[in-house]
From TrEMBL:
Keywords: Glycosidase, Hydrolase, Signal. InterPro entries: GH, GH13_cat_dom, Glyco_hydro_13_lg-like_dom, Glyco_hydro_b, Ig-like_fold, Ig_E-set. Pfam families: Alpha-amylase, Alpha-amylase_N. This is Glycoside hydrolase family 13 protein. One of its GO terms (molecular function) is hydrolase activity. It comes from Fulvimonas yonginensis. SMART domains: Aamy. Residues 1-32 form the signal peptide.
Amino acid sequence: MRKLEHAMHGGRIARAVLAALAFCALPLAAQAASNDNNVEWNGLFHDQGPLFDNHVEPTAAQAVTLTLRTFKGDITSANIKYYDSADGQFHWIAMSWSANDATGAFDYWKGTVPASASEKYYRFQINDGSATAWLNAAGISTSEPSSGDFFIVPGFTTPAWMKNGVIYQVFPDRFYNGDPSNDVTNGQYTYAGCATEKHAWGASVVSNVGGCNSAVFFGGDLAGIDQKLGYIKNTVGANILYLNPIFLSPTNHKYDTEDYMQVDPAFGSNALLQTLIADVHGTANGPHGYVILDGVFNHTGDTAAWFDRYHWSSVTGAYESQSSPYYSWYTFQSWPDSYSGFFGIASMPKLNYGASGSAVRNTIYGSSTSVVKTYLKAPYAIDGWRLDAAQYLDANGGDGSDATNHQIMAELRSAVKSVNPNAEILGEYWGNAGPWTDNGTEWDGAMNYDGFMQPVSEWITGRDYGNNAASISVSQFDSWLHGTRANYPTNVQQTMSNALGSHDTTRFGTRAGGDIWKTYLGLFFQMTYVGTPTIYYGDEYGMQGGADPDNRRTFDWTVGSATNSAVALTQKLIAIRNAYPALRTGSFMTLLTDDTARLYAFGRFDASNRIAVVLNNDSVTHSVTVPVWQLSVTNGSRLTDQITGTAYTVQNGQVTLSVNGHYGAILAQ
């Protein structure tokens, strides 16, 4: 706290008394702040939210002004230290005091990084006399960090609609049968020794013949999705439809594409796909929406005409002849039966992307008639691609990412953005996707298994996404989240796909042991955390399911309605998210971790709203006192729980409330 010296001179006595009274109302930590050769870590904050970074997505011509928060009167100086990739050097920017916050507890310091086209990484050096602290995206330390800095990536933007939207993921065969006339029937065809099986809706997903689960069909299709858009867009409230693969393939999952240019007849037709996309884009069934298709470009199926293992095509495929025009599109160790498949799977031969300008690259994304560009353009005009097994696209037939992969991804991005600069590129990666997102030349975001699904599952259910025992405390959970956010620029964080489960993991409802209250808690966090909430169909009501194929059960339409408590909560939480930009693009600040009571509170805030989210991961109700002064919420302010409508008045910088077990509160100012 800045000292009151000289306040007694002249007519300042009254003001000094008022200042002293205000001082007494501040939390003790803030009162203790002074120039005492000790930087108070609890007062330090910066992220790249709108209050702390004036250009999260700067152009090359825009300087970036950064704001650092400290306790009032706590420090003597602060500097920005940034690395500029253009010259490979570190540079220093002295910061200057700018203002106090509304509570009088904090100082704001500002500094400006000059404009240029080069990528930069920055950290703060904070001094109180002889004491120094360092702050970067990874956290606060006494010694200078060597990694985990904040990002400035000029010219890199991610789609605003993705930042502000909610994804609903559909596995088409299992969602809704809108046209029984196109259903795959028993024994309709045989593929890889497995005859097709038509199962009744709601029946087992396991095949009647061992090893033939991919031959089980239920009749879900594009017509069914189109007929249920009102459920997706209005009842649930999602506005982005992500479809698992829909192109011609002999299996139910369609990750072994036979023809990228043809919608599988069991799902409908290319014309019906156009209708579905138009209906998602339209407003007859709810708000304007967006469509992301699954692009399986690492490999084809072995029935693809380019490969033609079973001689289904009139085209001479690579498996049939070394003279085939497509022979070089694949990698053979010993033709024809020894070739590179996706993780050795023979039914999924890997595409060989060769060098820039190769036939494969042109066919998949490079030419005007390529797969990627065709569906981005009219008459389809999809809004983005999810890239399956994206790290593995290469020219060497391997299953590891390499320099060729990054070249391919950069070319693919250029191709996508040349058609639609606002299209989304969402990569599948299960770890730190930074190598594909952090330079702004490849993906916009990734499937956030590492930074969302896994930690959320371990914290709430005590199981990992494979349903193995794995439990973490609240403080471990918060630390995990902090660390994984630091992996990415802010605009990437905001477009990471945050799902409770997917077609590749066990169902969240099963990991939760069928406890719907744990699903409630998962939904609370999913709709208030940084990133794009992604609902795997059925997770909104706690659908059960083990490992593949059990995680792909048919949707239960007896509970898929607003009368279901979990569906109703999903709708309400999405409406709250939509009402407050702070929940989508605002700052994120940890407010409280209580390992004993299993309580977690955090803030989301911007210039318009300050929101405290309080989560109780215990099985019993707890009273919790939340330090909302950290969000610069003033005493006497009212915070209203958006779930219950209950209003709370801030006293001594805090609010106290009761939160039910496995539930939450969203307190908005």
